[in-house]
Amino acid sequence: MSGPLVVVGDTLLDRDLDGRAERLAPDAPVPVVDEPEERCRPGGAGLAAALAARDGRREVVLITALADDPAGRELAKLLAGAGVRVVDLGLSGPTPEKIRVRAEGRSLLRMDRGGEPGAVGALGADGLRALARAGAVLVADYGRGVAAQPSVREALRRAPSRVPVVWDPHPRGATPVAGVRLATPNRAEAARLVPGVRGESLAAVATRARAVLERWKAAGVAVTLGARGALLLGGPGPPLIAPARPAPGGDPCGAGDSFAATAAMLLADGAVPSEAVVGAVAAASAFVAAGGAASWNQRADAVRAGADHRVDGQPAARTHEVAADAIGWERAEAVLAAVRARNGTVVATGGCFDLVHAGHVATLRGARELGDCLVVYLNSDASVRRLKGPDRPLVGQADRASVIASLACVDAVVVFDEATPEAALDRLRPDVFVKGGDRALSDLPEAALLASWGGQAVILPYLPDRSTTRLMKEVARRANH
Questions:
Q1: Whole-model pTM?
Q2: Integer Cα distance of 442 and 211 in angstroms
Q3: Of 25 and 182, which is predicted with more confidence?
């Protein structure tokens, strides 16, 4: 698709007042912010459009409503400077503003201006032409009336039959139109939409996502999970988890806009939803690490790098016992007891792990990010032979277990003899069971078993072109030359 990305939604003016706070006020126990420097940027749908435009791959059109006041004129100037073409529907009320008072990169206070939303003008010929040309549409709804305006909504109803539509909802916003390719509520929004499901486990999140998928008649729902990435549900099978790269101390403001804008751009480029969500999580992680919305007008190199979600090979920064101490049922049960004593989440995964490669490491690291410990179920040598044939495994189970247990992201390794790990899973009953996948949300035989005790089976995407079979074929090819 060669058309523009069309962003539809409410635009706000964000102001950061950033200074130093080295003393308390004499009349109250509050910090004094010295010499604050003001930085303005587009917020809401305006930020999503600006982030998409700086990617530079395609034209970005923003259908929004701007007020004729100083803040509205400032927004128009900022958006033009960001390379966004604006279709202004007109706003009768004041421009909404969000003002953050910050010291050394940390927010101390937020003040909001703008009050009740003003009336939004009708969609005219310019907006209709933009939507007709769109390669993808992103609805960045901030609950101030643009997505609910009747003429806008009627045009959006027709869009999913022609192009991918991503809908980033708001608690006070309009219900997404039927058929959107991807709806992207965050964890809190999904909980408000489905209040009858209790808890914060992945099983609870997946249940809410399924309810939202059915209620909104969407093709897919991606629930964003903050520092833990996103959960994608696109049908009756188990969900896919796209883990995030942790960004300690990063500013999360605007991460949702970065996620939605990247997902929409990738869908416009022809990606399937699982590819779009994985790329969007990587971009949002890099965006937060680079400073978040406060750095929106800086060079985008770090954020662009986030779309390349390759493993860097560096282990998680945490302590780990020597490999031998991490192998066996006794070790696994001790780990689980300690984690459950503090109400933590137990994550498990399984496999042959014959020749460990970057794809395995990516799955293991991603699985560990979903909870508080990771137990690996390792197929025994006899089990591998039954699954792979008499020439496998290439590496014996003792060495395979030692290699996996030496990884910092792995807390325990247990070996099982059956073809599938159901009996072993039933012994430990983890909260989450992870399988690597090729971006297909196919059924997992373990899913029903996990559900029987309230657990959740999920899929993590494989890195492309990494597999033991591929390594073996490459070795054979080189040996023959």
A1: 0.77
A2: 19
A3: 182
